[in-house]
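Risk register update: the risk that structure generation would not scale has been downgraded. Supporting records follow, first protein first.
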Amino acid sequence: MTTETKSKTETTTNTKATSMDDLLSATPLTILQEGDLIQGEVIKSLKHQIWLDLGVHGTGVITSNELEYTTVRPEIGEVISASVIEPETKYGYAVLSLKKVAKEKGWDRLTEKFENKEVFGVTPIDANKGGLIVEMEGVKGFLPVSQLSAENYPRVSGADKDEILSRLNKLIGRVLMVRIIDLDRKNNKLIISEKEAQKELTQSKLSKLKVGEVIRGIVTGIVDFGIFVNVDGIEGLVHISEISWKRIDSPNEHVRIGEEVDVKIISIDQDKLSLSIKQLTPDPWVEEASKLKVGEKVDGKIVRITPFGAFVQISEIIEALVHVSELSEEPIKDPRKILKLNEIKQFKILSIDPEQHKLSLSLK
């Protein structure tokens, strides 16, 4: 071998060695670990498998149970991201997943919806006694009962949890329009609200209503403390004290679920509507009291005795108070010493307050 040939051979060998060193330093070899994110080029796309060229890491396969996490099937030659489930099987390839990548992309899209206060549709997949479970963009979320709209809120007398769950189950599979109200990717927390999604519409409708206005609604719920009435998509409460001028024991005695009723708006507080049925008719107490005058004498029946006085029934509607200080000219410590239940006595009217439904009497 001539000196010139030997020189050329050495140069070629050195060049190859240098090129390989450069390649190895530019692409340092790493060992795949479970959970790693990796990119690969699609080299084969079968019905139940997608094969990727992972470069220095060989090949990887995405199996059929992982393909459900991609809505668009990647094409041959396309570079996609996947996470490592099994770094290397006994056959020498890696098993990959699209789930983690899809979920991270899902969180990105959900974060954007949250920041933009976007309203979008979801379909509940399950329910528990606290609310509805949904899945969006590969991420599970929760819609609490308290965040359901007035239309879907399960109004149940006595807070029967089994009945609440039964009603929530009827919402599974239905599309509900919601808005994200709490999002925490780190703790895998996603809370949505149907009520919040309707907030602007609700406020718009409320702005058109006025205190004192009489409107018609549908009874959506009957509970111990009152009646819920849906008025054009806005739910209001008729408290038990606003159902009738007479004392009532149960709201069920006056209305039925689904019944249409006329109600009067007595207050609007943000998105809460307070309603009254009894105020649609004249106050019988006021009408009855208008026939009475301060200073005149009336007969009354003792219906209750307390340490501070007694309550006296002077008509079917009006019950008045005679204070202990008005029972006798002499100081009285125990009203029972001079009064008996169901006893009828004559009293003098000291004051009449129609607004507060108060009438004071004296026995002196």
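Supporting record for the second protein:
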Amino acid sequence: MNLYHGKLALQQRVLPSYRVPFFDLLASRCEGGLNLFAGLPRPAEMILSGKPRTAQYTEARNLHLFGGKFYLCYQRGLISWLEKSNPTALIVEANPRYLAAPSAIRWMHERDRKVIGWGLGAPKQSRLWKNFINQFDGLIAYSQRGAEEYAQLDFPREKIFIAHNSVSFAPDFPLPARPPNYNAQPAILFVGRLQARKKVDFLIRACAEMETRPSLRIVGDGPEREKLKSLAEQIYPQTEFIGAKHGAELKPYFEQADLFVLPGTGGLAVQEAMSYGLPIIVAKGDGTQDDLVREKNGWQIEPENYAALVSAMQNALSNVARLRVMGQESFRIVAEEINLQQMAEVFIKAVSLA
């Protein structure tokens, strides 16, 4: 276990509850501690905020400007926080939409201290992005795709680090045993918030097309629940709506499933499903899925492509022996490669070497 021999500070636009375990873990790896600076989301974002136990947290005053593709955010109090926390290194979100970041970078560089950018990548290969990322001493990308986007803007490859976007610890339990054949029928599981962008309606319709007539469990709640229940009653009454479950409550649903499907955007539950040895079908997104879901453990489909979802599900359910092997690979990936412990290791390496 490597340590950072200094005081680390980290800026975020908001502090989602799912990030708290990572920040507390990272704080335990910093000899001088970790100071966090983050504000509150807009109500429409429906982001559940959290507070760390180990990291020191200061709430930013977020000023949200405009919306959609024109959205900008200015965080009041950022320099005051830096003066008070006085870190030896700083990690900030590598996003030019966050207007206070350049002043924080200047503050650190005036004191000969490192600033590391952390982000999804540079989706727009433009001079704006190039000028922005070249302020940093190093970059941490969520995925291989993000790292390549940074490199394409001539940022030195040796200063780009890949910390796979993780929300779960490596499993501390053995791979769940599953029978060589399905029980009465294949069991498909969805876990997530019931929003239109999750495309749970696609999943219900696709199950209705399967010759194997799988059981479908939908775990979660949200604004689309009643609409989805009505659809299921009409075309696929085998659908079971479990409601919202969290933590240990999810364990029996993961253990009893044969296949985990997320047909829309988002997907915080993917890694947890993989830790229970489940193969995955997921819609392509920001690139983080590319490293997590591979040919050996699942299928990535184009978002909004219903036919691709049906085809992937038919393929998955047609060979139970192959499905079990893919589940074993899912477990291996999150046990050895992509988990919170490995993510923290990369962060420590980045601030120590960049």
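The chain is about 35% helix and 20% strand. On this basis the risk owner (M.S.) recommends closing the item.
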